[in-house]
Fold this protein.
Amino acid sequence: MVTILNQRILVTGGAGFIGSHLVERLLYEGAKVTVLDNFNTGKEHNLKMVYNHPNFRFVKGDIRNRSLVDEVVDGQNIVFHFCDDSDIKSAAAHPDSYVEQNIMGLYYVLESMRKHNVKTILFPSSTTVLGEIKKWPASEDHGPLAPLSLYGGAKLAAEGLISAWANTFGLTAIVFRFVGIIGGRMDHGVVHDFVRKLEVNDKELEILGDGTQSRSFVIIDDCIDAMLLCLFKLKDPYQLVHIGNKDQISINTTADAICSALSYSEVKRKYTGGKVGWIGDSTSNFILTETLDKLGWRPAKTSEQAVSEAAKRLSLRKAVS
């Protein structure tokens, strides 16, 4: 069984929402962790709990700085590459920088791993690689894949690069396709947006689309558990793993759960209309979790429970009840 005790682990994007939670857990498990982040989207305060940990090292820098990437990869045992830009709307607005960071940045990491004989990489992909499919939930072997957004396209390109490097150069790679991973440090996404909108105006909530779109959500704690279980158990050179919930809920139900958790009452809904909220959006993100099922994992919280918990962690107001 793989252990992370005393393993040297690099987390790129470790000051981000998922990355910072991962860093805390890795240090708790006894790893020696280096974080590379430029604080463009990650936040320094996300790492406040670990800054003085004796096994923690922080390097401020950009993933597009190839020499710096080479420096931080050298000597590592495992790389969690979590520094790509996850904002779908930002990708459409800034495609050049988006491709440079999300695709070229990954290439620099993979090449540095090959150069320094670092053999294990874990990467967060997304259900956006699926596009809009005829029948949900999607299995891990679903195809063809036809992303609707630049974000999804970059994730699919990353899956291909990682698979090629793993099979050509002998890496062990685990690629996770996430549903909506939610929690207290997130800075975008429907749950974050609803909580912030309600803090500004608790009488009316704007909902993009018609509210019937469905989403599956996983609380960050469950996500970290799933990733580390895969690190411990999976042995194939390249493994694709879906991390999702056993259910999905509508965007309307998502709004209901947030309002209930934070004790907002009599909130009117204002819909922008249409089946989806924006260009590149899809009606669902529901996936099957075949690999994790075989490993005996299941999320501790349902999608609705995850939304309620995330809303409480995000809210400045917190729950009244």
Remarks:
- The radius of gyration is 19 Å.
- The chain is about 40% helix and 20% strand.
